[in-house]
């Protein structure tokens, strides 16, 4: 801006296209209108300060797929203008100075795309909320065979939602910290999901107490006393896990972290205060029209005849056992289960090694929008990277007298892999009334570098990185070693964002793992179990990200995942994994105070598994419905979260966790020896068989 008067960042583009060719007069009118803006004759265009027209006439860009069919007008605005203001200025320019004979397709670019993204999110957010609530009603209703339990869930989530909206506005003004608006649906899904989780946990505990014969108040009191600490610690684990985002240097993640923490805390406080009150008031009516009847469990004892039964008969009896019974029957079974789960999850996680990150705006839009269709028209006439060229700024002494060197640098830029074309000072169109590519002072020059790929995709980012790496040698060959250079534009910005995000990865990962490990260690008062439970969660996370990478590589080759998707998913899935670890193992630990560990697993796991599965399916639905927002990043995040939660609850919590507890045995509680003193395993390492006297 200081050197040229306006930035050469074409984030808003007016596209003209005629399949049978634009006439010379059509192209001349486009240039005339650009001169009108550049000379100041065209007034009242808001922040619009300059226009650079480019056509695919005469093969200006070697990568152009057509000739004489398409004209682009890059619109340059004053710094600081909002996306909406820039879009309005572009539309005003098109409507005022062009007509039907000019074959205007529309306005596109990253700025109109971001403005449209905001409108789409605002329009679809109520739909996401309604569908999520509907899914929660169905899942909770089916799980408890009740019409009252879903109503309690809706009331609790409604209270939490209203409090979150009111208080978040207050704290935003107080601390001047606001979460990214594009992730507002994620915050809503998180709130609805965690509140539903805790309602399901409480209701499962109440039903268990009622079936054990407790009266209404006793059942509510016992369920609250048993599970309120577990739910409280689980909620703190989720909050602590999301707090890992605060260690990032990226302003995006730093702003997202407080929003997630506040959302989890609000949902937790509402759940642990309101739901116990509902349980105490409603009792068994919470499960109407069904009523949990007291059940006296029969203690199966093996008779002498059963002990002497043939091996074939025993195998037939084992075939009727539940998965948990089979897993806990012996350490051999547990080892087989662990090996199968670890092998399958590792295989699913392998695509993570080729994970590429991008920043998607135009490419993430629905194909039926004007911005996307206009982008397609521009790319058809040129190449995919035409909408947002990368700008190379060169500063040096007397550059206006070194045209040969500048021309040589431009030719070298064209040879970089992934570059479709270069427009340099030697190519500056005449008569534009502005020094667009060579400053009037002669001390600065600019190059427009058009890439072969979508400007914000992973491939384009790699191309920008190659340009940056080879610039020193190209400057030396061109005789411009004394010049200072810099890259700008959407692709260069995306490269910086991705690099910063990757740098944040280690900090976020270490903080998230330590936070979750600390919560597990404090709650379980052990060192061994937290380590292998957290490793299982990390493996589940790797499988989710691996499957997400694999699927979207097939659907959108070369684009990569949007930069924040894998990191937001990783933090949330780690936090939810610790949440389910605390709930699942916490109940086993509680029962193991009175029974041997293997028996405690058999007694506690069926109840906790049912509750975790119901809560997990509700949470997966809550995040999965983010796909209703028709934008690429939301589809990616919805898939990653839904598949990650389902893997966690259906594989890790239901199968791998009891297998690990059985395989490691009472040593899981080390250095606490409570489980060692109570275990009834034989010296050979076989766990007690279901029904065997201990």
Folded structure, characterized:
With 694 residues, this protein is of the alpha+beta class. It has helices at residues 24-38, 83-97, 110-144, 148-175, 184-211, 216-242, 251-282, 304-307, 311-318, 323-328, 331-349, 370-381, 403-414, 458-478, 490-524, 528-555, 565-591, 597-624, 632-664, 674-678; strands spanning 12-17, 48-55, 70-77, 104-108, 357-358, 385-395, 419-423, 444-451, 484-488, 561-562. Helix 18 runs antiparallel to helix 19.
Question: Could you provide a short overview of the structure?
Answer:
This protein has helices at 24-38, 83-97, 110-144, 148-175, 184-211, 216-242, 251-282, 304-307, 311-318, 323-328, 331-349, 370-381, 403-414, 458-478, 490-524, 528-555, 565-591, 597-624, 632-664, 674-678; strands spanning 12-17, 48-55, 70-77, 104-108, 357-358, 385-395, 419-423, 444-451, 484-488, 561-562. With 694 residues, it is of the alpha+beta class.
Highlighted features:
about 700 residues; alpha+beta; Alpha-Beta Plaits; Multidrug efflux transporter AcrB transmembrane fold; four-stranded antiparallel beta sheet; 20 helices; about 60% helix
